[in-house]
Specification:
With 247 residues, the chain is α/β, with parallel strands linked by helices. The protein has a single domain, classed as Alpha/Beta hydrolase fold, catalytic domain (Rossmann fold), CATH 3.40.50. 41% of the residues lie in helices and 11% in strands. It has ten helices and six strands. A six-stranded parallel beta sheet has the order 2-1-3-4-5-6, with helices on both faces. Strand 5, helix 8 and strand 6 form a beta-alpha-beta unit. Helix 4 packs antiparallel against helix 5. The longest helix has 19 residues. It starts with a strand and ends in a 5-residue tail after the last helix.
């Protein structure tokens, strides 16, 4: 299983998903800052994921490859699945979306400012405020740790990512996804409304929705037990249907 972190995070942000390693060979992806050559939009990130999968031959492992991620990582996963350049056994989408129309209009209009606004500093302020207030079950120490990723994000990275995410339309491609899909979404997500998760579950064939009541956007972190339980059940279902462990 390969998991892709959201905007501004690196693989360490998904450490609460490590217990899933008891069921699958777990890879936590580190998205490079530089865009993949010859691509545009979200493809500049999706190509990095495809190249990693092909280099590691993850899609050739017994049981197949399950790909997924939270927020931006989930959107990138949708694009990879719809492009079909790598073969997937399953898809896991955590607190993500397929259409920029799920975002407020003002957010889309202000997206170009991401090239000049210090997004990394803003993220640190937001997370550390969460830590001090105990929001999303985050302690001050955890907030400091999660806002110091191993990969320091550049303004160019944030600019490309934000502008891709605020203009993307992945639903047509999502309709072509054949891999079994689990959509996990928080009922109180203030960044991407529950409607975004419901839209994905209704659009992707063979998809199911697990709603985590009371969870916000960082549900992979704040409600890790519930999220991991949903993913574990999904993986067991894949294993039962193939007779081998999903990778």
């Amino acid at each position: 299983m390969l998991l892709i972190p959201g905007l501004g995070l690196d693989g360490s942000g998904l450490l609460r998903q490590l217990p899933l390693g008891a069921l699958t060979h777990l890879h936590l992806f580190q998205m490079p800052n530089l865009p993949a050559a010859g691509e545009s939009g979200l493809g500049r990130f999706a190509r990095h994921v495809e190249e990693y999968i092909l280099a590691k031959k993850l899609d050739q492992r017994p049981g197949g490859l399950v790909l997924g991620g939270n927020s931006m990582g989930g959107a990138v996963s949708i694009l990879v699945a719809s492009r079909g350049r790598v073969k997937l056994r399953g898809l896991v989408l955590i607190g993500t979306y397929g259409s920029c129309k799920q975002l407020p209009l003002f957010q889309r209009a202000l997206a170009p400012l991401a090239y000049v606004i210090p997004m990394a500093m803003i993220r640190r302020v937001v997370w550390r405020t969460k830590g001090k207030a105990g929001i999303d079950k985050t302690t001050p120490d955890e907030a400091r740790w999660i806002t110091n990723p191993m990969i320091r994000r550049t303004l160019g990275y944030y600019g490309r990512a934000v502008n891709s995410l605020t203009t993307m339309e992945l639903l047509d491609g999502a309709r072509r996804i054949s891999a079994p899909t689990l959509v996990v979404h928080g009922s109180h997500d203030p960044v991407l409304p529950l409607a975004a998760g419901k839209e994905l579950a209704a659009t992707i064939p063979n998809a199911s929705l697990t709603q985590i009541d009371g969870a916000r956007h960082s549900l992979f972190y704040s409600h890790a037990d519930e999220v991991n339980s949903a993913i574990a059940g999904f993986l067991r279902g894949l294993t039962a249907s193939t007779g081998s462990t999903a990778g």
